Amino acid sequence: MTEDVQKHSVHTLVFRSLKRTHDMFVSDHAKPVPLDEVSHKVKEAVKLRTEYGPVLHMPVLKEGRGKGTLGASDLYDSSGYPPVDSGPEYLITGTHPYPSAPGVALTADTQIQKIPSEVGVHSLALALPPSQARQEAARTAASVGDILRHAGASERSQSSLALMEGGGTKTSGLVPRKAPTMPKPQWHPPWKLYRVISGHLGWVRSIAVEPGNQWFVTGSADRTIKIWDLASGKLKLSLTGHISTVRGVAVSTRSPYLFSCGEDKQVKCWDLEYNKVIRHYHGHLSAVYDLDLHPTIDVLVTCSRDATARVWDIRTKANVHTLTGHTNTVATVKCQSAEPQIITGSHDTTVRLWDLIAGKTRATLTNHKKSVRAVALHPRQYTFATGSPDNIKQWRFPDGDFIQNLSGHNAIINTLAVNSDGVLVSGADNGTIHLWDWRTGYNFQRVHAAVQPGSLDSESGIFACVFDHSESRLITAEADKTIKVYKEDDTATEESHPVNWKPEIIKRKRF
Q: Fewest beta carbons less than 10 Å away: which of 238, 263, 283, 470?
């Protein structure tokens, strides 16, 4: 028959845990344990042999000379040399360490050149004019260095002398490293909603601003593409042709073309002078989720639910490369002129950096734990960010070196945008927008705009966001069928909206 386990109250268990913890660490705070003389002597002997072995054969003080212990200040006067009248006497032990003329016999009366201390050298240098002090310090350090090198001094002594010869001091090499701290974030003015544009009849899934910053274009689940005036927010044009949700739009900076892709597997090129489709790019086997234009080459890159990204020649419509390697939907793609020229994020939780010439993967980043739906390239730095429900991560090109995590936006992140001032915007499925300081990863603002009247609260997702080319406006595409435009609050100051900075939080960056 098994005995019942004795049950204790929470108070008893907590007290027992405290007592055991106290017993474990009591020696750190109680009266120190008395020193064991034998152990201490053994420790000193070992330390003497390991740390001072190379110089043990050098001159030593004569036994019994003087009573008490002598400090460094007792052995040397202000000039750095031993006092003439009461200096310590040296005896030669073992082989003479100093260079001597061949054939000269060493006797007990041999005079030994005495070495000035480094403290004395510095005090002497301070007492002389600057130019003369530098010459004297260099001459003295050189002579000390010659002597110690011939004497077989340890490498540690030589490194300190090399530091002295270079104009530094010995203490500069001993300065402790500063403890890692979180750098103070740059202050950014908060952003506020100032315009809501209605007109689409379905979720607004994609957005792009034209190079002249006069208008912007949106693609929606109502299968239309609409062009809006950026200054007034008025509708300029509607384009129809897709037979399913328009998931991506892009405006060319090199020609009057607009590109669109959708869940109908189609990729279209629109001529904005005639407002009609002039090219189709056939090849994807499933819904096309995103596209991007290369900034310097006439190629278009699209990504799809068929787990591939395809590179198209804009003019000939040829499928130049089919970038394979992802094992699930490729949700986002970005292009840049520097290597790597193509970056993709996928639902297989990886980010791939591609070699455009070879059409192969250059690097695969596997740090994310969940689907990667958003990628943003910094406009000035050689860095980028990726968004996933677990974290937003920052990376450094060209090899995808990890920089830091931006944690706290605990939702499905659909879109990222970053401007030249270092403001990173993340938009999520639950309608929240977080604004971050790029350098430190400090989340300085959180926005959750109200949904359009008549919409459900659950229809507050952010599907796309982009800064206009002046970077003074932030445009978001949302699930309540509206487009919202944000701008910086001109009345905000550092006093009215202070940085809530917690310096005790240390972020470990990998450089």
A: 470
pLDDT in the model for residue 457: 79
342 to 206, 257, 336, 377: CA distances (angstroms)? 20, 21, 7, 11
pLDDT tens readout for residues 114-159: 445 554 545 544 555 555 555 554 554 444 444 444 444 444 444 4
Q: Give the Cα separation of 44 and 275 in Å (integer).
A: 89
pLDDT at position 31 is 62
Question: Distance (Å, rounded) from C-alpha 388 to C-alpha 433?
Answer: 14
How far is Cα 491 from Cα 108, in angstroms, rounded to an integer?
Answer: 87
* CA dist., res. 429 & res. 179, Å (int): 39
3-state secondary structure string, 57-107? Answer: CCCEECCCCCCCCCCHHHHCCCCCCCCCCCCCCEECCCCCCCCCCCCCCCC
Task: For residues 1-8, give the mean pLDDT.
Answer: 66
Say what the pLDDT of residue 178 is. Answer: 66
89 pLDDT above the threshold of 50: no
- What's residue 449's pLDDT? 87
Per residue in 374-432, pLDDT (tens digit) is: 999 999 999 999 999 999 999 999 999 999 999 999 999 999 999 999 999 999 999 99
Residue 78 and residue 511: Cα distance in Å, rounded?
A: 46
Query: Are residues 446 and 434 in contact, defined by beta-carbon separation less than 8 angstroms?
Result: yes
Distance (Å, whole) CA 106 – CA 83: 25
Q: Which residues contact 444 (CB under 8 A, 6 or more apart)?
A: 185, 187, 188, 190, 435, 436, 437, 499
d(CA 385, CA 44): 55
Tabulate helix, strand, coil % of the chain (nearest 5). 20, 30, 50
Encoded amino acid at 155, one letter: E
- Cβ-contact 481, 201 below 8 angstroms: yes
Rounded Cα distance, 140 and 146, in Å: 10
How far, in Å, CA of 394 to CA of 387, rounded?
9
339 vs 403: CA distance, rounded Å: 18
CA distances from 475 to 219, 442, 485 (A): 13, 22, 5
How many Å apart are CA 328 and CA 356, to the nearest integer?
Answer: 21
| Tokens describing residue 434 | 């977080």
- Reduced to 3 states (helix: H, G, I; strand: E, B; else coil), residue 392 is strand
Give the DSSP H/E element, type plus range, for residue 291: strand 288-293
- 235 against 108, higher pLDDT: 235
Residue with tokens 């972020």: 507
End-to-end CA distance of the chain, in Å? 63
Mean pLDDT of the chain: 81
**Eight-state DSSP code of residue 336:** -
